[in-house]
Amino acid sequence: MRNPLRSEAEAFRFLVVVIVGALVIVGAAYINTWVGVAAAAIVVGGVAWWLLRAPSGEPPAPRLASATPEGMHRILVVANETVGGRRLREEVTRRAQARGQTEILVVAPALNSPVRHWVSDEDTARAAAAERVRTSVAGLAETGLVVRGDVGDGEPLQAIEDALRTFGADEIVISTHPEGRSHWLEQGLVDEARERFAVPITHVVVDLEAEREEVR
Length: 216
What we know:
The chain contains 9 helices and 5 strands.
């Protein structure tokens, strides 16, 4: 069965469908009992179709292989708010310098609020992600690394898949907030990415609050 709560956006859409359906049933029942029964049958049937349209045990996306040129090592960095964190920058720099000739692609998913996502307003989210990427790329470039950035799909797993199709990668570094403050960890993003992609994945925890305290 399709899981309607696999992401925040999916859960929001499911909630809207349930609320609208309930209002339709109540309105129809106010007109006539049998009209209400008919409306309930239609709404329940529609919700059931929506849940079941993806078959049980839907196969995962293909485990994409690396397409790195010979002699080159590629690192895909995926992060949102932590993309400019010192801990992430140090880890990526260390891994790149240990591999020799390395290319780095920093991707920040354009995460959006459920309401903005519902009305297809993604400009604000993409602009914020682009600014975070610029900051991260500038910090890594100061170390002499070959690095570029991009704004990815609002769904992190899709953002990774898109990047692998165009960039390839020998390894992926996913950065999150600490446990308890990270939506990605709550959603099991790192574990799902390791199951889905045939590329080694390193998880880096960035505590931005601790880093700010260190600076003070």
